[in-house]
Amino acid sequence: MERVPFSTHGFSVVVCRHPDGRWLAVRETKNRGWWLPAGLVDPGESFPQAAYRECREEAGITIQLKGVLRVEHSVYGPNHARIRVIFYAEPMDLTQRPKQIGDKESEEARWVTLEDLKRLAKGQPGLRGPELYEWGSYLEQGGTPASMVFLAREDQPVPIPVATESPALAEAIERGDTDLLRSALLAGCDVNTAVNPKQWTPLHLACRLKQEDCVRVLLIAGANISLLTHKQRNVMHFAAQSSSAVLCLIMLSLCMHTAWLSILNQRDALGDSPLHIAALSSGRGYAWELLIQYGADPLSRNQLGLTPEDLADRSFPTSD
With a cut of 50, which residues of the chain have pLDDT below it? Predict the structure, then answer.
C-alpha cells in the first residue's frame, strides 16, 4: 500500500494553579474570550518547551511543570491529526504578576477562582472554552496529574519504579474495603508506612478519599496523625478538606496527643496550616469552626503573607 503524506500538529495546554488556590486565565486576542495558556508546538520544540513558552508569552508567568493531566490524539480526515498534551503547572515566582498590557499574544492574564470563571462566562467576551473550569474542578476535587516521566523521548530510559511497602493497604483504602484493610494490617503491614512517592501514609490517603470507615480502622490500629508528607503536611491538612465525619475522627485522635496544638497548627512547605486549607476548601464552614474551637490560629501567615482569615474572606484580588 502506498504511503500518503500525513501531518500531525502538536499543541501544549497548561493548567496552572497558584498555591493560594487560584488558576491562571488568559484573555485571548480577537475577542475570543478567556481561556488558558496554550498554543502550537513550534518546529524543533518539545511539548514541555512549548508549554513554558506559551505561559511566558500569553500570561507573563514563568512556570514549573508538575505533571501531565492528559494526552489527546485526534485524527482529522485521511492525512491530518493533532496531539494535545495538557500539563499541570505551578508558578515559579509566587510574586510575579500576570500580563497587564495586551500584545499580539493576548490581551491580559489573571489569577482567578472557579467562581470567577463562572462570572466571566456570563459576561463579554465570555470563555473561549470550558477546559480551565473542568480541569480546575477535577483537581480541586482531589484529581491528580500523572508524573512528568509519563511524557518521554524514545531514547529516555525506563524509570525505576518506587515500590510501596504496603500496596494492599492502598488498594483496600481506595476500594473502601475495611475487611481487606484489617486483613492487611493483621498480616503485618505497617499502618504508618508510605503508600506512594509523596510519602502519604494510609491515614493521609483515607482522609483524602473521605473513607470514614477506613479512617476509623487505621486510628484503632495506631495510625500516627503527626507524620508528614513530602510537602510537610500532616493528616490534619488532609482532614481539613475531607468530610465532617472524617475530621471529627481525626480531632478525637488529636485530643489524645501530647503535642496536639503543634499538630493542629503545623505549617506545610508553603506555610499553610490546616486552617489555611480549610479556608480554601470551604471558607468559614464546619471545618473552620471546629479547628478554631480547638485552637487553630486564624492569623498565622503563609509564605504569601496570607492568613486563614484572608482566605476565608476571599479578600485577595483576582486581577493581578
Answer: 162-165, 315-320
